[in-house]
Design brief:
The chain has 57 residues and is mostly helical. The chain is built from three helices and no strands. The two termini are 21 Å apart.
Length: 57
Amino acid sequence: MPYGKYKGRFLIDLPEHYIVWYKNKGFPSGKFGEQLHLVYELQLNGLEDLVRKIREK
């Protein structure tokens, strides 16, 4: 995360409520917004552990 309370965290590690807030507010434009939308979809479908496992390697 590039800014705010969660600065320095991987997007996949953001709390679900934060990603849902962005979904309701509207994701920002550009690459960052696309990445947040992807994280939302991953969390919605319970796939965030796949990304965490890849990150560990």
